[in-house]
Design brief:
Largest sheet: 5 strands, mixed
Strand order of the largest sheet: 6-3-4-7-10
Number of helices: 6
CATH superfamily: YbaK/aminoacyl-tRNA synthetase-associated domain
Strand content: 25-35%
Number of strands: 11
Helix content: 10-25%
Length: 192
């Protein structure tokens, strides 16, 4: 089993995406001090593969999902953070939060181009300044969550509560729903 060589996130900026490293530098020191990062095998970036390979509990995984909503010709983007054991409620909750008629997962090419991050490594740290970041309230109860680092070759570790201190974050009750053992989570399971 591979091991995780964690270090304080500010020390680890060499293996984080540029927007992530830039955002970390701007965080208050009390927030920054709670964030660690570690390089990983990029082929193991997807939540389930990472958990299995590194022995990290699946319930500690959090997915950052880029969504796009439309109202007429206006396209509104946001990021949503949910536990890996849950499913984002795009059709009801996200649609209402964005005040749009239609909402869906953003196309991969758009998500990558707009964030400056790799697909499968998108993280709530370092997103475009005008994007809202919606975090499911259950994420805050996790003592530690692992999210992408902007690149598939690294992960970021932080207390769930630290997510509430990030820029543009709104904590939302009911942003995600439970996923039963026989339910297919679709793209949510493959996006970090």
């Amino acid at each position: 089993m591979p091991t995780l060589d964690r270090s304080p996130a500010l020390v680890a900026t060499g293996f984080l995406a540029i927007p992530v490293a830039q955002a970390l530098v701007a965080l208050p020191s009390d927030v920054l001090s709670t964030i660690q990062a570690a390089p990983i095998d990029p082929d193991l970036a997807d939540t389930a593969a990472f958990s299995e390979a590194y022995g990290y509990p699946l319930e500690g995984g959090a997915n950052c999902i880029v969504v796009a909503g439309k109202r007429g010709d206006d396209v509104r983007y946001a990021a949503c953070v949910v536990l890996a054991s849950t499913k984002l409620d795009v059709n009801r909750v996200v649609k209402k939060l964005l005040d749009v008629r239609k909402a869906s997962f953003a196309p991969m090419d758009d998500a990558v181009a707009l964030t400056g991050m790799e697909y499968g490594g998108i993280t709530p740290i370092g997103l475009p300044a005008d994007w809202p970041v919606f975090v499911d309230a259950r994420v805050l109860d996790a003592p530690e969550v692992v999210v992408g680092a902007g690149l598939r070759g690294a992960k970021v570790f932080l207390p769930g509560r630290t997510l509430a201190a990030l820029p543009n974050v709104t904590v939302v009750e009911g942003l995600a729903t439970d996923v039963g053992p026989a339910t297919d989570v679709g793209p949510v399971a493959d996006v970090d």
